[in-house]
Amino acid sequence: MLKVALMGAGGKMGCRITDNLMKMSDKYDMRYVEVSEVGIANLAKRGLKTTPQAEALADADVVILALPDRLIGKITHEIIPTLRPGTMVIGLDPAAAYAEVMPVRDDLTYFVSHPCHPPMFHDEVTEEARTDWFGGVKAKHHIVNALYHGPDADYEKGNAIARDMYAPVLTSFRITVEQMAILEPALVETFAATCISAIKEAYDKAVEMGVPADAAWEFLSGHARIEFAIIFGFSGFPFSDGAKLAIAKAYEKIFKPDWKENIMNLDALKHSVREITDSLNQPVKV
Hints:
Strand order of the largest sheet: 2-1-3-4-5-6-7
Order of helices and strands: EHEHHEHEHEHEHEHHHHH
CATH class of the largest domain: Alpha Beta
Structural class: alpha/beta
Shape: globular
CATH superfamily of the largest domain: NAD(P)-binding Rossmann-like Domain
Strand content: 15-25%
Number of helices: 12
Distance between the termini: 28 Å
C-alpha cells in the first residue's frame, strides 16, 4: 500500500479526495493532515481523525496538496526539505508549479492533476449524476495530468492515483504544466468565466426588459447548447445566415481587436499565476 499524506484533508477539495480514497483502504494507507476547526469537524463527520503533520510526512510515499494556491509556496517551503527521497508531491492546480513558488528537489517527483468536470454533452441518466456539477461523486468526467519534475516512469503512478482521487474518470489527458496553466486560469477562468458572467448580465437585462425568467433561462440554455455544438463542429450543420450576420456585427462591438494577445499570452499568464499564488518566492533548490 502507498502511504499517503493528504494536506488540507478536511477542506473543500480535501473532502472530495478523502471521500474517494478512504474507500480504497486496500491501496492507500491514509494520513489526514488538517489544522482548521471546520476541516477537523468535516473529517470527524466521516469518522476520521487527523494525523500530526510531522508524523504524516515522515514516511509518506505520496503527499497530496489539497491547499489554497496562495498557501502552497509557504507550506511547501516548510515540508519539502523533510520528505524522503522518492516521495511524490501531487498538486491539484498548475498555478503553484507554473509560478515556480515551490522548492524543487531533484530526488522528488512533482505531479499535477486537475479535473475537467462533467462534459457538457454526456450520457448521465440519474438525477444524482446530472446534478453532480463538479464530478467525481456520481458523474463521470475527464482529467488532465502533468509530470512537472521527476522520472518519466513515475507518470503512470501519478496517473493511477489521480484516477482514484477523481473517480469516476473517463479519459486522463497527459499535458505539460504550461499547457494546464493555459487551460486554467487563461482559457476557462480569465476568458470563459468572464464571458459567462457577461452572458448572465445579458440574461438579467432580458428579464428586466420583461421576459419571464424561466422562459429566458430555457431559451438561453437551449440555444447555448446548440451554439456550442455548431461552433465546435459536433452538430453537423451551420448557423443560419442571420445568426452569422448577428455574430459578425456584435463581435466588433464586444471584443477589442487584441483580446487574444492580451489574454492568451504566456507573459500575461505568468503574471496571472503569480497573482493567484500571491508569492514573491523564486525557484529554490534544496
